[in-house]
């Protein structure tokens, strides 16, 4: 079915939302709900379909064109199609890298537009925001070096008007700039305060990947980002949801991040001991699987 469905997508225009929406969803789940052997073949089929990739290119570009001043409160058919497009591209990036699949057509994405979508949000629906963050995670995990993707809108290393330390940091973090990193971190923190489950999971995952990327590029910058005092207020806000609120998976993963990068000004030894004590009193057998896994990672990191 991958052949006819992917060929059908390649013959569509981005405005054919009624047909494209289920088609792209089918391609997405075909990649995820299959055996590793079949998955590798599925990736090869999709990446060899040039017309499909050209269609995906147009769909991604529509993200910046279909942004009316007043979006409806519900997820429109156009926004739903954009979600499917970003999620499918993120998956293709992931699996192309995993299997080193041959690429017949590259995709071009403006990095500044992607970052601004998260930083400024502009009333984008939560699901679309989550989908774009999934894409951002994928490119961060691959250090912006995927053979499937061409990044445009990159920051030039240094302008003569910038002070030298900033120029050196921007060069180390290329194609990101320090200002973009801090703006992104602040926006991710603000999004976490909303306490929307799906959004919180995506934000914490994006924050984890961002700090890992920074740590590889420049350890000082990564440690500086991980130890921002605002994180402490953020953690206090997330833990103010009542008893045992620290047992939320995304909160545990956030605390694991602070422990991993030794942010003692955010999470002290006393607080860690208190968390371990409260975890010991919880009924571990009744915890959801996501919480158990997050707690295991936290304790292992400690």
Automatic annotation (TrEMBL):
<dbReference type="InterPro" id="IPR052133">
    <property type="entry name" value="Immune_Signaling-Apoptosis_Reg"/>
</dbReference>
<dbReference type="GO" id="GO:0007127">
    <property type="term" value="P:meiosis I"/>
</dbReference>
<protein>
    <submittedName>
        <fullName>MEI1 protein</fullName>
    </submittedName>
</protein>
């Amino acid at each position: 079915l991958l052949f006819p469905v992917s060929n059908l997508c390649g013959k569509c225009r981005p405005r054919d939302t009624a047909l494209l929406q289920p088609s792209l969803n089918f391609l997405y789940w075909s990649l995820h709900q299959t055996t590793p052997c079949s998955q590798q073949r599925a990736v090869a089929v999709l990446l060899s379909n040039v017309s499909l990739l050209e269609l995906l290119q147009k769909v991604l570009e529509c993200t910046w064109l279909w942004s009316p001043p007043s979006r409806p409160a519900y997820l429109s058919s156009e926004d739903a199609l954009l979600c499917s497009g970003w999620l499918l591209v993120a998956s293709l990036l992931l699996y192309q890298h995993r299997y080193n699949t041959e690429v017949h057509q590259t995709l071009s994405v403006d990095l500044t537009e992607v970052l601004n979508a998260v930083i400024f949000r502009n009333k984008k629906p939560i699901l679309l925001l989550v989908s774009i963050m999934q894409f951002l995670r994928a490119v961060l995990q691959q250090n912006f070096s995927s053979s499937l993707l061409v990044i445009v809108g990159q920051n030039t290393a240094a302008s003569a008007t910038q002070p030298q330390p900033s120029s050196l940091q921007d060069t180390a973090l290329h194609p990101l700039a320090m200002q973009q990193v801090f703006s992104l971190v602040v926006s991710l923190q603000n999004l976490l305060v909303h306490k929307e489950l799906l959004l919180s999971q995506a934000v914490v995952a994006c924050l984890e990947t961002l700090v890992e990327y920074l740590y590889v590029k420049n350890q000082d910058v990564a440690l500086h980002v991980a130890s921002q005092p605002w994180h402490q207020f953020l953690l206090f806000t997330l833990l103010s949801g009542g008893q045992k609120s620290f047992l939320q998976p995304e909160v545990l993963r956030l605390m694991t991040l602070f422990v991993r990068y030794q942010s003692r000004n955010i999470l002290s030894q006393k607080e860690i001991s208190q968390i371990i004590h409260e975890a010991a009193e919880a009924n571990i057998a009744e915890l959801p699987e996501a919480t158990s896994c997050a707690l295991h990672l936290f304790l292992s990191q400690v």
